[in-house]
């Protein structure tokens, strides 16, 4: 499957029609939802401040409740049947629901409008496992981050334009708004169905699955199974928390705009636009920052930004509203107004950094025949968290807290949740530290990474220039890498956390500690048997001169017991960095400059039977060239 750029995927039949179908569905959801919210807050059905705030939160809860109720069944259906066929049928159901919405708008009945919202939630609950489950069937691993970034961009741009269309039609159409909204949602539903007809087949991943229609039993079974897979489950918890946080912001923006900022529908639309554009931008930038692979180091980066700008959104709130029903230009004339807009946009931006790698990680590490059910488990927990967020907001409002105070609590809780998840799965934090290193001190030129197979054991043999060599290699290779390193380097504070998390193997010389020496070889042999990527520094120590130390024959001993292909690796440009021994001990001099250019060059695979220490050293020396 040929790799395409993010936007190039839109021209591909395997992605373009699917992208359009899901985007139109998300757009329709948001046209309807925001038209209803605008009716409840700004227009004919508006109630008092407290009542409208409660109705808005109830509507948010009603839309997501079906995700909790039906996701387990939806996940089974998505694994059992052709996903493209299911999308077409779901799009037909959407047309029927939108026709019913026309009736609800005609009578302007709040109960009927709420019931339509619930039906839309049901339709979306069945679409969710397909929406993310179909991507790995049509995209390669190197396209997953870009594909997910495009989906998240499309989703939040749909939120943006759906908000604008739904809100503006209802509030500025001389009483004909509900009729116009009715026409729009039906036409968009029909367009989504037509797009879905062009989606290529996506074969069932588990056609023999017997569907359990008991939602409670299957939900419990699904969550229990997914919980056994720690990284996947913690990623799902992270995704669920993000949607709870996002739902908290989105649900409060209407009343926040009116009562805290003193703005009208135009300002509310602006806040939603900035939030959505922020997430869309962060989602697209993920591929650039992750170099076409699943980079979970972006997740802590996103979490930090969400907390910082969430806190500032509280501190930037005015002591009293700037006015009453202000337009955007009037609002911008007040001191501190721009700061609030920047906070909202940055919360969205860091939300994109946070969410896209998590979705891609779940897709990458889930078993193919259970992926839709993993997404269904994600949707169940998303729904539970979002219902919890709605109840949390209602309880805060009932307890007399202001909306800025709700935002403050949300930011503090985000920090607590991030610390909890990253403590349970330190791989996230390890990758973050590695990502920061190779995107601040260095700019890495990479060559030959495609020579590492997607699965199966392989041994990397690299020259050893600095204390951060493992972090450079591990940060660039898309598969997890297990390193063999001198035990004194392994024990360096801070770096030890990274090495332990990456399951590095400490080794000592036989004369220093024979027991550790033998234990290291046993662990190396097991790593090869397990099909891991194992990286060895055959020099056995960091160079003190910039030239190679003789490669030791330990790699030959390993390959005699557990044969595996070997890929020579050359590091370039690290000699002279603060982590090297040029000019004295490492870490005792200032860096020469930020964003130094270094290189990582991989040679061709060498069969185990042809590997000798001398041959490897010469190949690595040739790959490195004159650039130490």
Characterise the protein shown here:
64% of the residues lie in helices and 6% in strands. It is of the alpha/beta class. The protein folds into 2 domains: 415 residues, Up-down Bundle (Growth Hormone, Chain: A); 188 residues, 3-Layer(aba) Sandwich (Glycerol-3-phosphate (1)-acyltransferase). The protein is elongated. The model has no long low-confidence stretch (mean pLDDT 85).
Topology, please?
Layout: H1 16-41, H2 49-80, H3 83-107, H4 110-133, H5 135-138, H6 141-171, H7 177-196, H8 215-227, H9 230-261, H10 265-290, H11 298-315, H12 328-332, H13 337-365, H14 371-398, H15 403-424, H16 427-440, E1 442-447, E2 458-462, H17 469-476, E3 481-486, H18 487-490, H19 495-501, E4 505-507, H20 514-529, E5 533-536, H21 554-561, E6 566-572, E7 596-602, H22 613-624
Helix pairs in contact: 1-2, 1-4, 1-6, 1-7, 2-4, 2-8, 2-9, 2-14, 3-4, 3-7, 4-14, 6-7, 6-10, 6-13, 8-14, 9-10, 9-13, 9-14, 9-15, 10-13, 11-13, 11-15, 11-16, 16-17, 16-19
At CATH level 2, the architecture of the largest domain is Up-down Bundle
How would you name the oligomeric state of the polypeptide chains in this document?
single chain
CATH topology of the largest domain: Growth Hormone, Chain: A
Q: Specify the CATH class of the largest domain.
A: Mainly Alpha
User: Helix count, per DSSP?
Assistant: 22
Helix content: 55-70%
CATH superfamily of the largest domain: MFS general substrate transporter like domains
Mean pLDDT: 85
């Amino acid at each position: 499957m040929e790799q395409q750029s993010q936007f190039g995927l839109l021209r591909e039949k395997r992605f373009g029609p699917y992208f359009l179908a899901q985007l139109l569905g998300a757009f329709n959801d948001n046209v309807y939802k925001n038209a209803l919210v605008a009716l409840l807050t700004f227009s004919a059905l508006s109630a008092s401040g407290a009542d409208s705030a409660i109705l808005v939160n109830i509507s948010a809860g009603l839309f997501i409740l079906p995700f909790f109720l039906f996701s387990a069944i939806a996940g089974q259906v998505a694994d059992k049947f052709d996903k493209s066929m299911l999308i077409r049928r779901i799009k037909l159901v959407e047309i029927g629901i939108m026709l019913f919405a026309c009736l609800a708008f005609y009578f302007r009945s709040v109960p009927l409008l709420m019931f339509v919202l619930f039906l839309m939630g049901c339709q979306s609950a069945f679409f969710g496992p397909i929406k993310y489950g179909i991507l790995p069937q049509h995209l390669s691993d190197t396209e997953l981050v870009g594909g997910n970034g495009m989906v998240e961009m499309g989703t939040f741009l749909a939120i943006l334009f759906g908000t604008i269309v739904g809100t503006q039609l209802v509030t500025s159409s001389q009483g004909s708004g509900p009729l116009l909204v009715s026409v729009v949602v039906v036409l968009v539903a029909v367009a989504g169905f037509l797009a879905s007809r062009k989606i290529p087949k996506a074969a069932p991943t588990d056609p023999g699955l017997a569907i359990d229609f008991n939602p409670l039993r299957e939900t419990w079974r699904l969550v229990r199974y997914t919980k056994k897979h720690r990284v996947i489950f913690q990623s799902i918890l992270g995704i669920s928390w993000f949607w709870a946080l996002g739902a908290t912001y989105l649900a409060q923006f209407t009343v926040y705009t009116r009562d805290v900022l003193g703005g009208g529908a135009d300002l509310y639309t602006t806040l939603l636009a900035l939030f959505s554009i922020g997430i869309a931008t962060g989602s697209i930038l993920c591929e650039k920052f992750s170099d076409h692979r699943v980079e979970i180091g972006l997740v802590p980066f996103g979490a930090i930004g969400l907390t910082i700008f969430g806190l500032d959104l509280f501190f930037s709130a005015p002591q009293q509203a700037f006015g009453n029903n202000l337009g955007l230009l009037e609002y911008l004339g007040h001191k501190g107004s721009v700061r609030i807009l920047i906070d909202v946009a940055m919360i969205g931006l860091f939300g994109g950094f946070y969410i896209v790698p998590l979705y891609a990680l779940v897709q990458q590490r889930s078993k193919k025949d259970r992926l839709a059910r993993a997404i269904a488990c994600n949707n169940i927990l998303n729904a539970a968290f979002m219902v919890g967020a709605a109840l949390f907001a209602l309880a805060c409002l009932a307890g007399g807290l202001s909306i800025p105070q709700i935002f403050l609590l949300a930011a503090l809780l985000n920090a607590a949740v991030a610390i909890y998840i990253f403590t349970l799965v330190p791989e996230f934090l390890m990758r973050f530290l590695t990502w920061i290193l190779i995107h601040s001190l260095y700019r890495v030129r990479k060559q030959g990474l495609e020579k590492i197979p997607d699965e199966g054991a392989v041994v990397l043999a690299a020259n050893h220039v600095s204390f951060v060599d493992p972090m450079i290699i591990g940060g660039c290779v898309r598969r997890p890498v297990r390193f063999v390193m001198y035990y004194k380097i392994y024990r360096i504070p801070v770096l030890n956390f990274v090495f332990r998390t990456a399951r590095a193997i400490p080794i000592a010389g036989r004369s220093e500690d024979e027991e550790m020496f033998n234990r290291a070889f046993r662990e190396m042999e097991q790593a090869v048997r397990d099909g891991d990527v194992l990286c060895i520094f055959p020099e056995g120590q960091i160079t003190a001169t910039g030239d190679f130390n003789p490669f030791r024959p330990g790699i030959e001993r390993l390959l005699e017991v557990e044969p595996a292909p070997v890929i020579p690796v050359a590091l370039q440009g690290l000699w002279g960095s603060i982590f090297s021994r040029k000019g004295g001990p490492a870490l005792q001099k200032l860096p020469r400059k930020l964003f130094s250019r270094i290189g990582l060059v991989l040679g061709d695979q060498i069969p185990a039977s042809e590997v000798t220490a001398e041959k490897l050293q010469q190949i690595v020396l040739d790959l490195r060239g004159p650039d130490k």
